[in-house]
Amino acid sequence: MTATAPITQDVMTIPRKLPEGPINLVGLTRPQLRDTLIAHGTPEKQAKMRVGQIWQWIYQWGVRDFAEMTNLSKAYRAQLAEVFEIAIPEVVSKQVSTDGTRKYLVRIAGGHEVEVVYIPEEGRGTLCVSSQVGCTLTCSFCHTGTQKLVRNLTAAEIVGQIMMARDDLEEWPVPGAPKDETRLLSNIVLMGMGEPLYNFENVRDAMKIAMDGEGISLSRRRITLSTSGVVPEIARTAEEIGCLLAVSFHATTDDVRDKLVPINKRWNIETLLDALREYPRLTNSERITFEYVMLNGVNDSDDDARRLVKLIEGIPAKVNLIPFNEWPGSPYTRSSNNRIRAFADIIYKAGYASPIRTPRGEDILAACGQLKSATERARKSRKQIEAEAGL
Ligand code: SAH
Ligand code: SF4
User: Fold this and answer.
1) Catalytic residue at 142?
2) Which ligand minimizes its atom distance to the CA of 385?
3) Between 20 and 30 A from 89 (CA), which of 62, 136, 156, 343?
4) For residues 381 and 328, what is the distance between their CA atoms, to the nearest angstrom?
5) Whether 201 is catalytic
6) Residue 190: pLDDT above 70?
7) What is the pLDDT of residues 152-185, one digit of tens each?
């Protein structure tokens, strides 16, 4: 902490505009926001109150302009505006599917672009948030995995996607209006581009902000983080985020999983399951979602279904079957509806919920695994994809 202002001093001593440009307040945790305000002249004894006020303006009311923060003095607002900004990713384009799904392309610092998907459902709505530009992992069935350029998103860029969607849905509350409990954006899934557990701190901080009761206020049970199986970060996810967990399981033998989800070579099925067994205990016995992409002739046999049931025995679980979504050059095809239903049936009869995920927004390439920002043209060749898939 760099407290430049003496504790006894009440007046602001904010320096002139910083040479490196304004500091973005979005994405800072409460303690970070406090330190930042103090470092730029907010008296320490006022800091707690100022954090509370500014926090509410940003995350509860969706305000982006310090001038609108009417419970702060005019002078203080002006001083804040000299040093700070409230900035979120810029929407480059928005596509709306025939089923109502919205896909946004947003631009972040450095000219990179990521995709964000909003899926409206009966009485609720889910935002699929990205955690990285591209992904360092190379799951052979995933479009994002073919994008070479990768950078972690900052906490501001992650929580900024939620704020952007609330802007577009016009869902910031109006002061004084009665509270409407049905939310258009009621759930978050970290299932966009990237491996969230390879960007742990930023994802954690962004989700803490989204869960904060004096802001966006989403319960931890309405946030689901999907990982391909970064084992060392799973217990930390339980302890430091506490959200629901989904795991990209996708295969029932190490041989096949090595090909589909190459991180399996580092942490195999057994190691992954050991980590998952602990998760419900650490988060108060919640079910883990096992995601399972249905690839024709690769992982979709009755034997696979029976093996899967055996593997997950003893873990509170549901199995989410995802019909494979094709993308340009993808090396697999989708299992037939009958095959998927037969697979689901075996799992269901063993006592696990086995919903089949309905693809949403296929016409705008917004379905699971189809995301890839168009500007990142560097794409692996079909040959490379097939070689990695072991075809
Ligand atoms: N990187 C994380 C989260 C993003 S992917 C992870 O892998 O879990 C969200 C889900 O979509 C994962 O289960 C992923 O395996 C799945 N998926 C990827 N490509 C897909 C495709 N082409 N069709 C269907 N599901 C896919
Ligand atoms: Fe990355 Fe997930 Fe795609 Fe695998 S499935 S390449 S981990 S985004």
Assistant:
1) no
2) 2
3) 136
4) 11
5) no
6) yes
7) 999 999 999 999 999 999 999 887 777 766 799 9
- Beta strand residue intervals within 249-376, DSSP E: 288-294, 317-323
CA-based torsion, 325, 327, 330, 333: positive or negative: positive
- Nearest bound ligand to CA 139? 2
Provide the residue type at 298 as one letter: V
> Ligand 1 within 6 A of 132 CB?
no
Taking the C-alpha atoms of residue 308 and residue 252, their distance in angstroms, rounded to an integer, is 6
CA of residue 141 to ligand 1 center, whole Å: 8
Which 3 state secondary structure label does DSSP give 92? strand
Mean per-residue pLDDT of the chain: 89
Read off the tokens for 69: 């923060």
- Cα torsion 169, 175, 180, 181 to 10°: value is 90
Q: How far is the CA of 208 from the centre of ligand 1 (A)?
A: 24
134 lines ligand 1 (CB under 6 A): no
H or E stretch at 23 = strand 23-24
Give the nearest ligand 2 atom to 226 CA: 2
> How many whole angstroms from 159 Cα to the centroid of ligand 2?
20
DSSP structural state of residue 231: G
Higher-scoring residue by pLDDT: 148, 224:
224
What domains lie within the chain, and their CATH numbers?
Answer: 27-85 (1.10.150.530), 90-389 (3.20.20.70)
